[in-house]
Amino acid sequence: MTTYSKSFTGVGEGPEMSLKKGDSINYSVSGTFAQTFQLQRAFNKRWETVVSGTAAASGTIKAERDSRYRFVCSAYTSGTMVTSIVDQTPAVAMRRIIPAAVGKAGTTAGWVTAAANNLSLATCPASQTASTLVVPVMGLRVGDVITGFYAVGQIESAGNTATFDVSLRKMTAAAADVSDAAVASATQLSVTADTIISSSNTRVGELVEAVDADESFYFLITATTALATDIALQAMVVELNG
C-alpha cells in the first residue's frame, strides 16, 4: 500500500496518486481547522471534485478508469488540515531494463554506442572530460509511477580517478517550447579502483514521479575518465509501481 499525506496550512494542492481501473483508495481529513477541502479526480488533464467539505471526513473510492486523485485546500481561514490518500491495492514493483546501447552521445563527445564488437554496451574511453550520454526511458505508460532508478556496468580504473554521474530528466510538451527539467540525480560515483556500477552505488529511490501524457523521460549520464581508465555501461534500470 502507498500513502500520500498533506498537512494544509493555507490554500494549495496535495500530491497526486495514480490509480488503475479497479484500484481502491481510502481517504481521510482530520485536524482542527477552518478550511474547505476538495478531493479531486482527473482522467486526463481536467480535474473534477469528487468529495468536498469543511469538516473531518473519510471514505473509500474505487477507480472506474485509470485516473489520478489529490486533495486541494480551496479556502483557508485557520488551523491545520491533515489529509491522506491510501492506495488499498498492493503496489507491484517492476524494474524496466533499458540497454545503454540505445543511447546517443550528448553535447560533450566521448561516449560510444556503436563499438566494433558484439556487446550491447555504451563505452566511455580513457582521457574524457565531462562526456555526456543520453539514454531515453522507453516503454513507460501514462499513469506509471517512477519510484527509483540505477545504473549497471563497470569502471576500469587502473588506479586513476574516474567519475560517473547520472540524472533522470523529464521533458514536457508546451505551446511555447518543450521544457527540460531534472527529476533526481544520483550521488557522484568517484573511484580509483576497478568498480562495479550497480544499485549498491548508483540507486536513487523514494521517488513519486507520475508519468503524464505530455511527458517523456531520459537519463543524462556524465563521465570523466583519466589515463588508462574507461567505463562500460550495460543498462539503466527504472523502478516502477504499476
Describe it.
It is a single chain. By secondary structure, this protein is mainly β. The protein folds into two domains: 2-87, Sandwich (Jelly Rolls), CATH 2.60.120.510; 93-241, Jelly Rolls, CATH 2.60.120. Helices cover 2% and strands 60% of the residues. Strands 10, 12, 14, 18, 19 and 21 form a six-stranded antiparallel β-sheet that branches. Strands 11, 13, 15, 16, 17 and 20 form a six-stranded antiparallel β-sheet that branches. β5 (33-42) and β6 form a beta hairpin. The longest helix is centred in the last third of the chain and has 4 residues, at 199-202.
Tell me, rounded to a whole number, the average pLDDT: 93
The strand count comes to 21
Overall structural class, as computed from helix and strand content, comes to mainly beta
> How many distinct domains?
2
Q: What is the succession of H and E elements?
A: EEEEEEEEEEEEEEEEEEHEEE
* CA(first)-CA(last) distance: 12 Å
Which of globular, elongated, flat, extended, rod-shaped describes the shape?
Answer: elongated
Estimated helix fraction: under 10%
Strand content: over 45%
CATH class group of the largest domain = Mainly Beta
Low-confidence stretches: none
Provide a short characterization of the protein structure.
The chain has 1 helix and 21 strands. It has 242 residues and is an all-beta fold. Strands 10, 12, 14, 18, 19 and 21 form a 6-stranded antiparallel β-sheet that branches.
